[in-house]
Structure to design on (224 residues):
């Protein structure tokens, strides 16, 4: 069962505009959420995280929003840059649990 | 500053052959993980080691064995490779739970 879902396999935006990547989860025990970025032939790299006690976390151009009642989180990138073009994975786990579940990823393309 | 190192980067096996994938981290991390990534499915946890001397099954452990050789090294073994195990394998590590995992660059394994 896929407990973390990214329903958009791809997203294309213009440089300078906002990119919004979405993620839904089904397991109500999840309380730690992360976004990873992956370039071809490299491993995923950590981007930003949020715990369930918050509904927003910002780091520079990247903001993650968490809506626990809807079991939904989103990643906003503002402004988008061509170097942001990559596959973005959403991940979630329960507190103090090693079993992290990943979404299938969204390929973001930022056009100059 | 190597981080997480995986060897080999590529491997082609015949059905029934055995193979050990190696992973080493130089960050003094306590926990280590093995994932597989298949198209359209994101990363799935195969096995993890919460600390030196312990290993546990993840979401998809069948057909694999692991060894936590010491704090730095965590290997994944395929005893009798099957075509369904064709995938990209990622090793990851983290110092504490509820912290982001650091990933290696992956091993691309093809089984004919």
């Amino acid at each position: 069962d896929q407990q973390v879902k990214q329903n958009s396999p791809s997203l294309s935006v213009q440089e300078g505009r906002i990119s919004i990547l979405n993620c839904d989860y089904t397991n109500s025990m999840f309380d730690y959420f992360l976004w990873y970025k992956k370039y071809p032939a490299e491993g995923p790299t950590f981007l930003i995280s949020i715990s369930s006690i918050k509904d927003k976390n910002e780091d520079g151009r990247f903001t993650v929003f968490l809506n626990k009642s809807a079991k939904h989180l989103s990643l906003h990138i503002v402004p988008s840059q061509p170097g942001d073009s990559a596959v973005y994975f959403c991940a979630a786990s329960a507190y103090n649990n090693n079993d992290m579940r990943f979404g299938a990823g969204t390929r973001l393309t930022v056009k100059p | 500053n190597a981080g997480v190192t995986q060897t080999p980067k590529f491997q082609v096996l015949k059905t029934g052959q055995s193979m050990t994938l190696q992973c080493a981290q130089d960050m003094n991390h306590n926990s280590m993980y093995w994932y597989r990534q298949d198209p359209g499915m994101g990363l799935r946890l195969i096995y993890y080691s919460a600390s030196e001397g312990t290993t546990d099954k993840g979401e998809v452990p069948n057909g694999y064995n692991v060894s936590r050789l010491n704090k730095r090294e965590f290997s994944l073994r395929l005893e009798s490779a099957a075509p369904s195990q064709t995938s990209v394998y990622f090793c990851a590590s983290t110092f504490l739970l509820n912290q982001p995992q650091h990933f290696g660059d992956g091993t691309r394994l093809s089984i004919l």
Q: What stands out?
A: The two ends of chain A are 38 Å apart (CA to CA).
